[in-house]
Design brief:
By secondary structure, the protein is mainly alpha-helical. 68% of the residues lie in helices and 2% in strands. Helix 2 runs antiparallel to helix 3 and helix 8 crosses helix 9.
Length: 220
């Protein structure tokens, strides 16, 4: 990390945080409630959403997942039905394959077992490593995003292009890396976590706050 953070940017961020804090806290509670009270189908819907998001607009991805959930195609539709629904998403052929492979992994005798599988892990980072190694189409960013969205990843960083851009602007990093392998991801996550501690904004809140600053809304 650079020796000095961008103080002006940090002060601006804190002003926005005080204004949006209640809304951010409400969204975090919604995420936690999915793990506490949500069904396995809800958990899988969140996983499917995160599979779709790379290089695609998050809101369009979520609208697509909502429609697939409503029609039940997400849970028992054919590969071709899913592919047809994903045509508005970038790289829909690959993402159709990733989504159906993930469904096959967690679906047994018509019932999802995703909660049972995830409950085996004592620590979110172990769970994330497993997801990255076992679920095609899921990298560290997507696994972190998924775990945060179901209330299990409050201390994980979702290092998408918006966050990396802000990390550069805040002087947390000097430049945006072209690629992120595991070692680089964990290093930048550590820096982002340290920055979160230094300015007194929880990591999960900071992610939503920076997303808001970039897009003008609090979202998933």
């Amino acid at each position: 990390m650079k020796s000095k953070i961008n103080k002006k940017e940090v002060e601006d961020l804190k002003v926005i945080y005080e204004r949006k804090r209640q809304e951010i806290e409400s969204q975090i509670k919604t995420f936690k409630n999915i793990w506490v009270n949500g069904s396995d189908e809800e958990l899988f819907s969140e996983l499917a959403f995160c599979i779709l998001t790379p290089q695609s607009k998050a809101k369009v991805c979520w609208q697509t997942i909502e429609e697939l959930t409503k029609t039940r195609i997400l849970f028992n539709g054919s590969k071709e039905e899913i592919r047809k629904a994903l045509r508005i998403i970038r790289f829909y052929n690959n993402k159709t394959m990733y989504l159906t492979n993930a469904r096959d992994k967690f679906l047994s005798n018509g019932n999802f077992s995703i909660r049972k599988v995830l409950s085996k892990f004592d620590e979110p980072r172990e769970c994330r490593d497993w997801l990255v190694s076992e679920v095609k189409g899921i990298g560290y960013k997507e696994a972190s995003h998924f775990l945060r969205n179901i209330g299990l990843g409050e201390k994980l960083a979702i290092l998408d292009r918006h966050i990396l851009k802000n990390m550069r602007d805040l002087y947390i990093i000097e430049e945006i890396p072209k690629t992120l392998n595991r070692k680089r991801y964990l290093l930048l996550e550590s820096r982002f976590s340290k920055f979160s501690d230094e300015i007194g904004i929880p990591l999960s809140h900071l992610d939503l706050l920076l997303w808001y600053r970039e897009t003008g809304e609090i979202f998933k």
